[in-house]
């Protein structure tokens, strides 16, 4: 069974020293609000998850980590590959998933911050 972002743990927080006004998602409000938003974000991203056929045929597996920044309206500001899966096809698929998923769900009013950073592990597993 393939595993996408919705099966992954809540993710990791981004190490983002460049953008001082961006709030790490885990610090954007009380834990229930943040968890609720993360669930919504994971479901949204999962709709765009696709395991590349060629990577599957080649038996490639891995978990690239994409770090991204977005605003309250869900507009993607920036994204980059923090950790490679070791396979370019999988790394590219993770980046493509994120760009296709934009705009992301709007951030609820009860969460603080204007921009948010998050590090998303995208698991590609043939099991």
Notes on the protein architecture:
Residues 36-127 form the TonB C-terminal domain. Residues 1-29 are annotated as: Disordered. Its main location: membrane. Residues 9-21 have a biased composition (Acidic residues). The chain is α+β, with helices and mostly antiparallel strands and 127 residues long. The chain has one domain (22-121): Fusion Protein Consisting Of Minor Coat Protein, Glycine Rich Linker, Tola, And A His Tag, Chain: A, Domain 2 (2-Layer Sandwich). It contains 3 helices and 4 strands. It has a 4-stranded mixed beta sheet with strand order 1-4-2-3, covered by helices on one side. A hairpin with a 4-residue loop joins strand 2 (65-71) and strand 3. The model is unreliable at 6-10 and 12-20 (pLDDT under 50).
List descriptors.
single chain, 127 residues, Fusion Protein Consisting Of Minor Coat Protein, Glycine Rich Linker, Tola, And A His Tag, Chain: A, Domain 2, 4-stranded mixed β-sheet, 4 strands, 28% helix, Protein TonB, protein transport, TonB_C, cell membrane, TonB/TolA_C
CATH architectural type? 2-Layer Sandwich
Sheet with most strands = 4 strands, mixed
- Count of discrete structural domains: 1
Radius of gyration: 14 Å
Shape type: elongated
The side-by-side strand order for the widest beta sheet comes to 1-4-2-3
Tell me roughly what share of residues is in helical segments: 25-40%
Which stretches of 5+ consecutive residues score pLDDT under 50?
6-10, 12-20
Kindly provide the name of the CATH class.
Alpha Beta
How would you classify the helix and strand content by structural class? alpha+beta
How many extended strands?
Answer: 4
Tally of helical segments? 3
H and E string: EHHEEHE
Distance between the termini: 5 Å
